[in-house]
Design brief:
- By secondary structure, the protein is of the alpha/beta class.
- The chain has one domain: Rossmann fold.
- Helices cover 42% and strands 17% of the residues.
- The chain has a seven-stranded parallel beta sheet with strand order 3-2-1-4-5-6-9, with helices on both faces.
- The longest helix is centred in the middle third of the chain and has 29 residues.
- The radius of gyration is 17 Å and the shape is globular.
Length: 233
């Protein structure tokens, strides 16, 4: 039977200090993975690393995904600590108000740099190690990356991530690296200032991530679009 051996596997999660990233890190650690926790808030990463078992199980790395030097340091630290990278989850991102007159150009710039450029840098930084391990690349897009939301720059960035996932899959064909887009609907996460009712939980998305990465090597789950039952659009 073609089964993936998860013993000693390492996953990098960007945006790991809260929300979907932290939930994914917790679930991966509970299933025996070694976890690299990357985000801009070192204190929260350190606390999560200690919760997940300390330095033998979890490595906190301060990383602004929009900075190439930070991404390179993240990879170097991961390989130094654990020797290999089997999964990279490019999850860091944030949103903003809808309406092209209702946000600031400065906030748009930071959003595009994090959601699009940052994801591309994570892809670029991790591909050599993932190719060596015949690993798995995941990117957080959104339902908003499949349909257009009125006046939403966030939706625009997530359409770019959706395209990036397919572009990466085609580029990595023949390397053994699998590529999965995770596309959540409304999720009760710190992403939202006002938490949506009847929404998905962060752990619902984390379980979807772990489903994708635990399939046999010949199975590439390209997209997981996950909505709460109550969500219509």
């Amino acid at each position: 039977m073609d089964v993936l051996d998860l013993t000693g596997r390492t996953i990098i999660v960007t945006g790991a200090s809260s929300g979907i990233g932290a939930a994914t890190a917790r679930r991966a650690a509970a299933e025996g993975w070694r976890v690299v926790l990357a985000a801009r808030t070192q204190e929260r990463l350190q606390a999560l690393a200690e919760e997940l078992g300390g330095s033998e199980r979890a490595l906190p790395v301060r990383c602004d995904v929009s900075e190439w030097e930070d991404q390179q340091r993240m990879i170097a630290a991961s390989l130094s600590a654990f020797g290999r990278i089997d999964v990279a989850f490019a999850n860091a991102g944030f949103g903003g108000p809808r309406g092209f007159l209702n946000d600031t150009p400065a906030h748009w710039r930071e959003m595009v740099l994090t959601n699009v450029y940052g994801a591309a840098l994570t892809l670029r930084a991790t591909i050599p190690a993932l190719t060596e391990s015949r690993g798995h690349l995941l990117l957080t897009s959104s339902v908003a990356g499949r349909r257009v939301l009125p006046g939403s720059m966030y939706s625009c960035t997530k359409h770019a991530v959706t395209a990036m996932g397919e572009a990466a899959r085609q580029d990595l064909h023949g390397t053994g690296v699998r590529v999965t887009l995770i596309e959540p609907g409304m999720t009760d996460t710190p992403f939202f200032e006002k938490r949506p009712a009847e929404a998905l939980k962060d752990d619902d998305i984390a379980r979807a991530v772990m489903y994708a990465v635990t399939q046999p090597p010949h199975v590439d789950v390209n997209e997981i679009l996950i909505r709460p039952t109550a969500q219509q659009g």
